């Protein structure tokens, strides 16, 4: 079974289940963030663990991506996954998909 077929089958089951019992789609996500060293944070949600930091220019250690990197990654990956899910449901073949997220920001506001 191709990945598109696998996605379509899984989505079909999930759509049917959520149509019959919408409460199955509701949940609460809980992340725990702990400052470890200066501005370095350890984040855990369920079995996932990752670090966040700031660059040395603002007092961080530069040991991990910044919150902005994760924010842009979250938006880009959410869009890419959504596009692929819809393509699978509509049986639209996609061999490559790339989402670019560009965000303008002003670090002066942070300080």
Walkthrough of the structure:
41% of the residues lie in helices and 15% in strands. It is of the alpha+beta class and 111 residues long. Strands 1-2-3 form a three-stranded antiparallel beta sheet, with no helix packed on it. Strand 1 and strand 2 (40-45) form a beta hairpin. The chain is elongated and about 50 Å long. The model has no long low-confidence stretch (mean pLDDT 96).
Quickly list its features.
111 residues, 3 helices, three-stranded antiparallel sheet, alpha+beta, elongated
Chart the SSEs and their pairings.
Elements: H1 3-20, E1 32-37, E2 40-45, E3 48-52, H2 67-89, H3 107-110
Antiparallel strand pairs: 1-2, 2-3
Helix pairs in contact: 1-2
Short précis:
The chain is α+β, with helices and mostly antiparallel strands and 111 residues long. The protein is built from 3 helices and 3 strands, in the order H-E-E-E-H-H.
Mean pLDDT: 96
Helical element count? 3
Secondary-structure-based class equals alpha+beta
State Rg. Answer: 19 Å
Overall shape: elongated
Secondary-structure element series: HEEEHH
Biggest sheet record: 3 strands, antiparallel
Strand-residue proportion = 15-25%
Low-confidence stretches: none
State the end-to-end distance.
Answer: 52 Å
- Write out the strand line-up for the largest beta sheet, numbering strands in chain order: 1-2-3
């Amino acid at each position: 079974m191709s990945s598109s077929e696998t996605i379509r089958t899984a989505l079909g089951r999930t759509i049917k289940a959520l149509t019959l019992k919408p409460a199955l789609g509701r949940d609460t996500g809980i992340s725990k963030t702990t400052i470890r060293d200066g501005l370095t944070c350890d984040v855990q949600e369920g079995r996932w663990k990752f670090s966040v930091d700031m660059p040395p220019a603002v007092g961080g250690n530069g040991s991990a991506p910044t919150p902005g990197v994760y924010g842009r990654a979250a938006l880009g990956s959410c869009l890419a996954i959504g596009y692929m899910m819809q393509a699978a449901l509509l049986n639209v073949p996609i061999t490559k998909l790339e989402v670019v997220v560009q965000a303008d920001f002003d670090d002066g506001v942070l300080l």
